[in-house]
Amino acid sequence: MDPDKCLAEIRELEGKITAWGRVKAEEGTNFADMMEVAGYALRLAEAIGNLDEWLTKGGFPPRAWKKGG
Length: 69
What we know:
By secondary structure, this protein is mostly helical. The chain has one domain (3-64). The protein has 2 helices and no strands. It has helices spanning 3-27, 31-56. The longest helix is centred in the middle third of the chain and has 26 residues, at 31-56. The chain starts with a helix and ends in a 13-residue tail after the last helix. The model has no long low-confidence stretch (mean pLDDT 91).
């Protein structure tokens, strides 16, 4: 696993979910919208789980988490 790619995906998905929430708070939502964000949330949960497993097994952290990274 590449922790840098995983962290990039986590950050991308977090951004999509956050932006979606801001827009939909103003516009309202429908079922298709909810399914879209549910897909992002599932991918985010999987990426977080993968990174957690990687780190728990002794893998190195993403470069961005290292001091000066």
